[in-house]
Every structure is written in C-alpha cells, then in structure tokens.
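Subject: for your reference before the review

Hello V.,

The reviewers asked for a structural picture of the protein, and I figured it would be easier to keep everything in one thread rather than splitting it across files. Below is the amino acid sequence we used in the manuscript, unchanged from the supplementary table.
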Amino acid sequence: MRFDLTDLRLFLHVVEAGSITAGAGRAHLALQSASERIRGMERELGVPLLRRSRSGVQPTDAGRTLAQHARSVLRQMEQMRSDLGRYGGGLRGHIHLLCNTSALAEHLPDALARYLADNPRISVRVEEKLSREIADAIRAGTADVGIVADSVDLHGLDRLPFREDRLVLAVPPGSPLAGRASVRFEEVVDAEFVGLVEGSALQEHVEQHARQMGRRLNYRVQLRSFDAVCRMVRSGIGIGVVPRHAAERLAGNLDIALVSLDDAWAQRTLAICARDMKALPDYLQDFVARIAAPAEG
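And here is what came back from the structure prediction:
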C-alpha cells in the first residue's frame, strides 16, 4: 500500500467537502490530478472509497475507515514536526513520559518542575494511561519510560522505586466507617461512590477490582481531581478511593475521615520503568535519576 501524505490530505479534503472538485481546490491540486490520485488509491486497495453522485461524493465504509486512519497519521506527523522543530531552537532532548493518575496528579508535578527548572533545553510531554497499558507500551517499544503502580506485571522491565502510593477510603466525618482503622473493599463495594471521571487510570484500577467481585460501582458523581472528590465526600455525597498522599494533604482543610484499605491491591508503590535503563540516552537516564530522588528537606 503506497499512499503518500498528499493522498491522505486530499482524501480528507474530499470527504469533508463532499466533492472531488472542492477537495482538489482545498488541496491545491488540479481536478484531473486529484481524481487520478483517488482512483489510484481505490485500485491499490481494491475497493471503492467514494460513492459518486450528481450531488457530490460520500465515503463508503472503506472510505470512512481510511479517513479515520488518515486523520491519525496526519496528527502524528504534525506532532513529529513539532517535536523535531524544537531542536532547531536549541532543544537538546524531548521526553515522552507515560504515567498513571496518582503519579500525574500528586507526585510528578513538583519533581518535574525541579527538573525542568534545571534543564531549560529539555522538553517533556506527559501522557496519562493505565499502569498495565504503560507497561505494555514500554515492552512493545512504543514508549521509553513510564511511571506505574508495581501491582501490574513488570516482567522483562527494569524498574526504579518512585514514590509510595497507598490507597485509602475517604469518608464523611459522620459516617459509621469514620471510626474504623481499616476496611476491606468488599465491605463497601456496594456503597455510593464519588469517583474520578471516566478514563482516569486510578478509577479504572478500582473498577477492575469491583468487577472481579462481580460488582459495578455506583457513582453519585465523577469529577476531575482528588480535591473535588474529597470536597464531595465531605458534603456526604458518597465515599471515595484516593491516594493517601492526596487524602492527607486535603484532610486538614476538608474535615474528612481516612480509613485504610486492607486489600493487597491498595498497598502500592509507584515505579519508574523502562526496557533497559542503561540503554536510555544520557539525558533520559539523568531525567529518571532526578525525578526518582525525593525532594530534599
């Protein structure tokens, strides 16, 4: 399959305009050239990509699939240009870091700020994913370094401790649970919960263990931050599973009670992982060492 970027851009213009003529104009191509390019794509694939009529064109099922992939490829190309273009401005390195919710929300910002302040020629792009997705991406070679909970399978990966990340239950001060030192998740799995929004790596982690019990969490509301979750808990809307680090930071101002979760999956350590730490570029090895070190004082 030999499509170039001009083919992909042209096809998207045609689909969006609903016309080969208009699409050719947007792509700055002659109509005859544009038509031949699209016919060539159809010959290459062996299927029609457009339904042609007097009123214009519409993509076939194959055409819609191609358009979806074309958008993805062109976005990746733009990201690549952006990343590489920075080197012309004196950038020495660009780091793509994958991390789970707890690392991103609680532990990483301060460590990252210290590192970036000392390394003005390095840029970092941070992407949130589930811990198991991060480990799989690094094993597959699609990412260099990530921060995960050590509860996932890290077979075949080098790892370095990052931070403790134990999960606790945040409950309203008047709750019967508030007097408990600890609780098992199965005791509360049917309660009303305040959680993080769909797509959060931490929330997916909690939901996974509920599903293993044959349960589905009952959310009163899902929010974007641990602060918002704890504020809802304080108001008696429900209970929430949050990292101890975040809960202790917020508990003093929000009057919530914290109850330890006895489940093994809640006793987590965050780890920095890579396929081979020693094979990373020097600037990336320095990055890992710097963020792994706890703040002084």
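For the response letter, the relevant points are probably these. The longest helix spans residues 61-85. The chain has a mean pLDDT of 90.

Happy to draft the paragraph if you're swamped.

O.
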